[in-house]
Specification:
heterodimer, A: alpha/beta, 11-stranded mixed beta sheet, 13 helices, B: 588 residues, mainly alpha, MetI-like fold, two-stranded parallel sheet, globular
Chain lengths: 368, 588
């Protein structure tokens, strides 16, 4: 009876497809517009404007915050996610003749020069830039505007050091001391963005002439290298059941571990080392893609992203910190967030020019 | 048995088939039409466009680029490591998969369909989840290390697993054994046992029977499975990156690094072409080989080929094999599932969790949008979306794969088939990054502006599933004796009825194997899905990745919980497809 069963198979499959296609359409919130817009075969009668925003896959926003913008400008915002930061930037570059979106968010200072050299952005001097500290504005021509930042810093496991009566390290040089032998795990700069940031911190701190010597010292002190933040933090870091009590992570990891703990905990179990020169600051930018047909609305969106409304939402959605000083932080952050006063400095141009050379030299010293 | 007569017949059949009649040519073209259009639009066009664009960004010509790549010691090292680890992984996979295939093919026992479904789960798990599973078992504070430390009073974990070659090999075996189990196992289950019985009666010993009768008959399906396993290992990405760690690189990880990190598109394109050429060479070799190996034989219903575990010998054998399969393929899964219901965080001031306690918090939390994020989807929706894509992928892959396999099997010696056969495998050997960017630069004009369409996801999944479907179906189709069809035709059956009553029942089971693979590929695919842009419609692996890359115990726990749900959905899906088999569909 092959035919009858085959019919069942087909019917079953069709059912599954319909289920799959319909489920996300069921309006779980009032903002059906966002989800149904791309599927409506004909343009709706009222003149809602469409805005496409291309981002990397860590982008997130809360519904209410987006609704504020959509209602204010009678707009539908559609988000397109395009893989990790590097992939998203590459996609924006390769599609610049037929842009996929009006706005691109998510290029960071390690990829900024590539995006600017390829000319994917239009200049836009947002009025809100006035309140944003100059240190975040890395593009003097205002093609890429800063939105948020995160500091890549060493984190250590408090309990580990407390139980051994060992004072935790205070800066990068401390890590060369024999008492910290075999305690550090870092990410590979070729495959991981915090890994690259930490390499840049050592370059900023010890200079192009000195960083390789420093890394040789770390190798002698038995540094462990893995490819991803996930593996470093979740598998190797002693907080999570690994054997290494010092890890390269973010300055904001300790408060986030409090906010997203399994059970309410009083204080963080880890601490970030934020002494001068021991962190590297990643800044993420937004820009209007060249060739947009929605320039006016795109400008409004960028203003919105820089405004406190969006900036307040940034930490809990994307695990990074707002650049706008007027933004309010959750009280857990107020309490436990340590922000380095003087992170190591390496300019985007230097990074773009030397990325390959630095990573290759690092690979020779550390992995071979 | 007249198998000796049949042995000589492929050549004769071939000659008979190869009379240059127009209808044959026309029907061949008709069969190829849809698969060709699909591959041209969604594979060759994007690939050629991105490769062309990449080379156009180079200052030197492409010959220089190739010479440069070929003389570079670091790239040569990457190349040889890629080949070596793929070969080694494939051999180990076969060594474990073939005895397992024998067990599934020849014996009927309780819990068999459950066991078969379990062995399929690894295939759908994203590399990050597999890494988490192995870590919870073999990591520095994994169960095995903890147990050994407690037993022998050690202060350091004795087993170093993460970031070793062993981890790569084990993960590849973990992923791919199911390919051997299913493809060889299914074919084996239809071999007439009377062939080997006859050999034994005529005085051959077990070894002779195995090497002279069974293995030659199985050769086409073993070759097909080995080819797929090898190509999967050859283009391995996540396993190398996450479990292998920074000291290992394959061509695929190098292409990713050159493309994404350095934006050195010309070199990336050069490496992508080298990878493709290897796949092509291997597939051409495979095609030649199987044309010689294929023997039309009598496929028998499993009713006649399978036995119960009646004597002690067979019971012990089965017990050993089942233990091996469970130990290798399901222990990491159990470790993962257990971790998803265990508290992960040690108490304040405690170093590690010495007294684990159970919790369902992670599962509960999955249904809560705590940060009221726009892209949040409840697990049920993610399951529905995943199943939706999988459904479309199954339909597309079968609709395209069946005519292609049919054309390959019916007219094996025509020139067009000789060209098409190896080409079909190319999508598997293509770097996902390259092809992903190819979609961006090629599909950018209406009516083909699919760059932001949700259709792109099942299309990308189909590209991967399609070669699987063809490879699962062709051995079965080739083994159908032409005489059966001829007899039906002589008795007056039109071609449609011949297909419906002769071919379809005979390949029905292979069709289900093909559907299972398409289902599993779509359900587990991560790389291409992540590159394709619609955050409102995430598949389960995408949501898992969202959780696992965020800080906090709660997010990690939710990633593990959702991975467990993915395993359950996979098991359920595979058992459902298995059910169709038990209902004797396609059984004859």
């Amino acid at each position: 009876m092959p035919i009858r069963i085959n019919k069942f198979t087909v019917i079953g499959l069709i059912g599954v497809i319909i289920l799959g296609a319909c489920a996300p359409l069921q309006p779980k919130t009032p903002i059906v517009s966002l989800q149904s817009a791309p599927l409506t075969p004909f343009p709706t009668i009222e003149a809602t404007q469409e805005l496409s925003v291309m981002t990397h896959d860590s982008f997130a926003i809360s519904e209410e915050v987006l609704n504020v913008f959509q209602n204010q400008y009678n707009a539908n915002v559609r988000f397109l996610k395009s893989g990790d930061t590097g992939s998203a930037v590459n996609k924006a570059i390769l599609s610049k003749d037929a842009p996929l979106a009006d706005v691109f968010y998510g290029v960071d200072n390690t990829f900024l020069s590539r995006a600017l050299e390829e000319g994917i952005f239009e200049t836009y001097r947002s009025p809100i830039l006035a309140v944003i500290p100059d240190e975040f504005e890395l593009d003097p021509q205002h093609r890429a505007l800063p939105v948020d930042y995160g500091d890549v810093c060493l984190n250590y496991d408090k309990a580990y050091f407390a139980q051994r009566n060992l004072p935790p390290p205070q800066n990068l040089v401390d890590l060369l001391k024999p008492e910290y032998k075999s305690l550090l795990v870092v990410e590979n700069p070729a495959t991981s963005s915090p890994g690259l940031a930490f390499l840049l911190a050592t370059i900023g701190q010890f200079g192009e002439d000195g960083y390789l010597d420093y890394w040789e010292g770390l190798v002698e002190n038995d540094v462990k290298v893995v490819n991803d933040w996930e593996v470093a933090y979740r598998s190797e870091f002693s907080r999570w059941g690994g054997t290494r009590p010092i890890v390269v992570s973010y300055g904001s990891s300790p408060p986030f571990d409090v906010i997203f703990s399994e059970e309410p905990i009083e204080e963080p179990l880890t601490t970030a080392i934020v002494s001068d020169g021991s962190c590297f600051r990643q800044i993420e930018f937004v820009g209007i893609l060249k060739g947009t047909r929605n320039r006016a609305l795109a400008e409004k969106w960028i203003d919105f992203m820089l405004s406190p409304q969006f900036q307040d939402d940034v930490p809990l959605q994307m695990f990074v910190l707002p650049v706008n000083p007027k933004a309010h932080l959750d009280e857990t952050f107020e309490k436990y967030l340590a922000i380095p006063n003087n992170p190591a400095k390496v300019s985007p141009d230097q990074i773009a020019a030397n990325r390959e050379k630095w990573i290759q030299a690092w690979t020779e010293v550390v992995l071979r | 048995m007249d198998s000796s007569l049949d042995r000589g017949s492929p050549a004769i059949t071939g000659m008979w088939e190869y009379t240059p009649k127009l209808p044959k040519f026309a029907s061949l073209m008709l069969l190829w039409l849809a698969p060709l259009i699909f591959l041209a639009l969604f594979y060759f066009f994007p690939l050629i466009k991105i490769l062309g664009l990449s080379f156009s960004r180079s200052d030197t010509g492409w010959t220089e680029l190739f010479i440069e790549a070929l003389i570079s010691t670091s790239i040569r090292r990457v190349f040889w490591f890629t080949v070596w680890q793929a070969l080694l992984s494939t051999l180990i996979t076969l060594a474990i998969g073939l005895p397992g295939a024998y067990l599934f093919a020849r014996y009927e026992f309780r819990g068999k369909s459950m066991l078969m479904a379990l062995t399929g789960i690894p295939f759908v798990l994203p590399a990050l989840v597999v890494a988490a599973a192995f870590t919870s078992l073999l990591g520095p504070r994994g169960w095995i290390n903890l147990a050994l430390m407690a037993m022998f009073n050690l202060s350091q974990p004795p087993i170093q697993f993460i970031n070793t070659l062993t981890a790569i090999l084990l993960a590849h075996v973990f992923y791919n054994t199911v390919i051997v189990l299913r493809m060889v196992g299914d074919f084996w289950s239809h071999l007439d046992p009377r062939l080997t019985q006859a050999a034994r009666t005529l005085g051959a010993n077990r070894w002779q029977t195995l090497t002279r009768i069974t293995l030659p008959l199985l050769a086409p399906s073993i070759a097909a499975a080995a080819l797929l396993v090898f190509i999967f290992n050859f283009t391995s990405f996540g396993v190398i990156l996450i479990l292998g760690g920074p000291r290992f690189a394959t061509l695929e990880t190098e292409i990713y690094y050159q493309t994404i990190s350095l934006f050195n598109l010309p070199l990336a394109a050069t490496l992508a072409i080298i990878q493709l050429m290897c796949t092509l060479a291997l597939t051409v070799f495979y095609t030649r080989l199987t044309l010689r190996l294929s023997t039309p034989i009598n496929l028998r219903s499993r009713r006649y080929t399978q036995r119960r575990l009646s004597n002690w010998k067979s019971r012990i054998l089965a017990a050993c094999l089942i233990t091996l399969l469970i130990g290798l393929l399901t222990t990491p899964l159990i470790a993962l599932a257990t971790r998803s219901i265990t508290r992960l965080e040690p108490e304040l001031g405690q170093e590690t969790l010495f007294t684990p306690s159970l919790t369902l918090d992670f599962y509960r939390e999955l249904s809560v949008n705590r940060t009221s994020s726009l892209f949040y989807v409840p697990p049920t929706t993610a399951i529905a979306i995943s199943l939706g894509y999988a459904g479309v992928t199954i339909l597309l892959a079968l609709a395209l794969g069946l005519p292609a396999a049919w054309a390959l099997a019916r007219y094996p010696h025509t020139p067009i088939n000789k060209i098409m056969d190896p080409l079909l495998m190319l999508p598997l050997g293509t770097s996902a990054v390259t092809l992903g960017l190819g979609f961006i630069v090629a599909l950018n004009r209406p009516p083909l502006d699919l760059r932001t369409s949700i259709l792109l996801i099942p299309l990308a999944h189909t590209l991967v599933a399609f070669p699987f479907v063809v490879r699962s179906l062709t051995p079965a189709l080739r083994s159908i004796r032409p005489r059966l069809r001829h007899a039906a035709m002589v008795l007056g059956a039109p071609p449609g009825r011949v297909f419906r009553f002769i071919d379809l029942p005979l390949i029905g089971r292979a069709l289900l194997v093909a559907a299972t693979f398409a289902f599993a590929i779509s359900l587990g695919e991560f790389g291409a899905t992540a590159l394709i842009a619609r955050p409102e419609y995430p598949t389960i692996p995408i949501v898992i990745y969202r959780y696992i890359s965020q800080p906090g115990a709660m997010n990690y726990g939710q990633a593990l919980a959702l991975s467990t749900i993915l395993m359950l959905v996979t098991t359920a899906g595979m058992m459902a497809i298995e059910r169709l088999r038990i209902a004797d569909i396609g059984e004859f």
